[in-house]
């Protein structure tokens, strides 16, 4: 029987996913990984001068810092953060319908950048990786935006939308980079980095 190369390499390690995102959980399942979910709430506040990937990298590492002193030998902690960067502005998670609608009006008929950073942390080391994907939205009508928000309640997603949902199907004209990265995890980079960091 042929083994999953990553599973084989990590057989002596415990992988910990510090995310409540069902999308990231699904990606780890799709990679064939055995993992445990551990959550530590933090205030996602970052210095105002940070831009683009600096924000997602800072928050990813901040999430890892909540586990300081709690990791054991042979444990690998995975934390991550996604930023939607548009016109030199970060569009974070919308907290209500009005904020989501405002974000989607900004994204309408324009390009934006989706940046996901992932920190892989052990007792002795930490490596943070980032992936950027450019996405072009078609022009969105008020009715389309209202319908999407009502149907999908996208309040846990950066930029106020999920590419895998109805809006992604009807509005995305072009995408440059990793699709999985926009969903929430650059699986190709996570796979490669895990393969490289384990002896």
Automatic annotation (TrEMBL):
Its cofactor is a divalent metal cation. Keywords: Cytoplasm, Hydrolase, Nucleotide metabolism. Its main location: cytoplasm. Its EC number is 3.6.1.9. The active site is at 81 (proton acceptor). It is an enzyme of class 3 (hydrolase). It catalyses: dTTP + H2O = dTMP + diphosphate + H(+); UTP + H2O = UMP + diphosphate + H(+). It is found in: Cytoplasm. InterPro entries: ITPase-like_fam, Maf-like. The record marks 23, 82, 164 as: Important for substrate specificity. Pfam families: Maf. Belongs to the Maf family. YhdE subfamily. Nucleoside triphosphate pyrophosphatase that hydrolyzes dTTP and UTP. May have a dual role in cell division arrest and in preventing the incorporation of modified nucleotides into cellular nucleic acids. This is dTTP/UTP pyrophosphatase. It comes from Croceitalea vernalis. The lineage of its organism: Bacteria, Pseudomonadati, Bacteroidota, Flavobacteriia, Flavobacteriales.
């Amino acid at each position: 029987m042929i083994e999953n190369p990553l599973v084989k390499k990590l057989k002596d390690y415990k992988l910990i996913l510090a995310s409540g995102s069902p999308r990231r959980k699904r990606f780890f399942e799709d990679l064939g990984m055995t993992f445990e979910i551990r959550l530590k709430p933090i205030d996602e506040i970052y210095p105002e001068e940070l831009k683009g990937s600096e924000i997602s990298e800072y928050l990813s590492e901040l999430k890892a810092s909540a586990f300081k002193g709690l990791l054991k030998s042979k444990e690998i902690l995975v934390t991550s953060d996604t930023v939607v960067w548009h016109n030199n502005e970060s569009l974070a998670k919308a907290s209500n319908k009005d904020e989501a609608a405002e974000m989607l009006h900004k994204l309408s008929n324009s390009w934006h950048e989706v940046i996901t950073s992932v920190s892989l942390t052990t007792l002795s080391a930490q490596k943070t990786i980032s992936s950027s994907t450019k996405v072009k939205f078609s022009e969105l009508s008020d009715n389309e935006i209202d319908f999407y928000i009502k149907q999908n309640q996208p309040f846990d997603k950066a930029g106020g939308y999920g590419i895998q949902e109805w809006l992604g199907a009807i509005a995305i004209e072009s995408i440059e980079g990793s699709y999985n990265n926009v969903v929430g995890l650059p699986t190709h980079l996570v796979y490669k980095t895990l393969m490289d960091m384990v002896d």
